[in-house]
Specification:
The chain folds into three domains: 32 residues, no CATH class; 32 residues; 49 residues. The chain has 119 residues and is mostly helical. It is 88% helix and 0% strand. The protein contains four helices and no strands.
Length: 119
Amino acid sequence: MNSWVLFRTEQCRVLSAQNPGMDISKICEKYPINYCYILYIIMSFLIYVLTIILPTLLAQHLSAQWSAMSDSEKEPYVQKAEALRQQYKVDLARWEQQQARKNAAVEFEDADEVEDMEE
């Protein structure tokens, strides 16, 4: 149960206690539906459709399309993926070298501080 259901259940009990003998249809006439809540429900459903359902359907469609493609049709994508993989390896090696230099500089500075403290 979500918080709205809990709130609604509690408020229905309160309204029933305040209006003994009045059935739910009369209570609903007395206290009209909260249109903001209805809008919230509609928007939640639309967000769900746009963020979950449509991407899933699109992924299924594209997956089927990819499976139907021949190897020659897939080749440009394979080449592009390989180029990106090689670029990643180069970037990773460059980053690791930079990190090693930074660590060496920090260790060198720490060693200088230790020597200064000993003097």
